[in-house]
Design a protein that fits this description.
single chain, alpha+beta
Length: about 140
């Protein structure tokens, strides 16, 4: 999966790896995040998610940072395990391409299809990219 972002690579990397507890507001998600550790090389946070209404589940996210172009996610949840690789490429005209590759292993029987999972991820990232570009435009205006 890839996204083209109208912002320079350094801004994109900083924005994407600045994990915050209120990031759910960007996507409108019901998931909640509690940051346990945040350093230059790693962020660890616990996610509470709701696969069924009123039935919260939890998972631990370990994000290893590889500045200035990539980061790696490991997620261990009650219902699945996931790995994510994120890599940035500088494009012309101040744009950046974000390439993402995911591996997911479910621990439950009822799982989304690959198409459903991809659609959900694309919808989420479309919202992140829109917020990122809005933040970049705001910062550019101030300069």
């Amino acid at each position: 999966m890839s996204e083209i972002i109208n912002a320079p690579l350094t801004f994109v990397y900083k924005w994407c790896t600045d994990f915050r507890e209120d990031d759910y507001k960007i996507t409108g998600s019901k998931n909640r995040r509690k940051i346990l550790e945040k350093s230059k090389r790693r962020t660890i946070y616990v996610t509470t998610y709701f696969p069924k209404p009123n039935k919260p589940k939890t998972g631990v996210n370990i994000v290893t940072l590889h500045p200035p172009r990539s980061w790696h996610l490991e997620f261990v949840g009650e219902e699945d395990l996931e790995e994510g690789e994120y890599r940035l490429t500088r494009l012309t005209s101040g744009k950046t391409r974000l390439d993402m590759r995911f591996k997911e292993q479910f621990k439950v029987r009822k799982v989304p299809s690959a198409a459903e999972d991809k659609k959900h991820t694309e919808e989420m990232w479309d919202k992140y990219v829109a917020a990122l570009e809005k933040d970049y435009a705001r910062e550019k205006k101030r300069s």
